[in-house]
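Annex B. Sample input.
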Amino acid sequence: MKKIVLIGLLFLQMQLIFSQQAHIIENDDPVVKSDLNSRKGQFFASWGWNRSSYTASDIHFSGNGYDFTLYDVKSQDKPNPFGIKFFSPADLTLPATNAKVGYFFKDNYNVILGYDHMKYVIYQYVDVKIDGEINIGNPTYDGVYNDDTINLAYDFLRFEHTDGLNYIFAAVNRFDNFNELLGIQTDKFQVNLEEGIDIGFLYPKTNTRLLGKERHDDFHVSGFGLSAKAGLNLTFYKHFYLQADMKYGYINMPKIRTTNDKVDNAKQHFGFFEAIYSFGWRFKI
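Annex B, continued. Sample output.
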């Protein structure tokens, strides 16, 4: 709820800035105004990287011989040291990456198809609360649990969306130039602000080892997500840009594959925050 309020306040602040900008632009030279704000019909594409964080999540596991819930499971992303793999075509999915293509259907509005490749790894060897039942012939973990404590050891559970927590989405964004507001007198360097909302689906490759069962790690559709973002865009010579985005969102995955047996599944939902850094190209066809 707090994140929703923060997002609302952010968008309210952006609208106040837009109103101030519109008042200033009324007296601008029309040629400069046109150069800075004429984007209708342009395409763009970008590539970048992210760091992410997640709220604690209740994870429910069910299958043959077990049905239990782990509460307030904490997680982290899995960053890679910066190096050649960030640019190598053979290693595109190793870092946490982001890709998108888009089109300006109005000077100040665009639509995007995007792909956020995040990493999600639960903390191991920590104690969490558990409710439910396990009866698979494993003397270590078989039993009925009622608000008990269990340790997330590797022989009990390994749970990662590391190749990855893949969020494929469509977005609508507003895009505004702030050169005049900042006193920048050239159109060869542009300071822009982009903010918007998106909705999409989750296509993770979840690396799971559960209760000694065979490891499972296949791509599958598992749920949906939605988010809101705001980003600073620096455009050079009207075509090339660097962009930094902050994205807050919600992910709900009601059907996560956990073993090679299709009856074995998990479900969870959580909030997420992404800091995204990307470079891109704007062009017309």
